[in-house]
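Section 5.1 Outputs to date
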Amino acid sequence: MRNVTEQHTDSTTDELIDSIYEDMEKESGDFLNNEGSALFSVQSAANHHCEPNGTSTFPYSNHTVVLVAAKDIEENEEIFISYLDDCALTRSRHSRRKILQNNYLFNCECSRCLEEADEPDVTSEEEDDMDED
């Protein structure tokens, strides 16, 4: 009888997980790969910046996240991480903001984006074409 209960629980759990993924996809769209996603209280308190002073790492190869300074951080200075990968951080302000708007629903107003406000609004493809010229 115990095996029947375990199978029922596994089936119910699988159905619950499937429904959660479906609900998340309705809200977030296809961009978010939820496999292995988690919420971390310390990391979630760090805002995005296009020139972050910190980075999230998983040094223990488990569920423990550690914020590591990417540069010197002064006392009482806010710790920023980037929501973008290294490749996206090399893109233009326009491209970075487009990714952040599409995936995280905000327009970045970090100091780097404000400093680059007068630069042309080019897409990633246009940037690639300019690099080739």
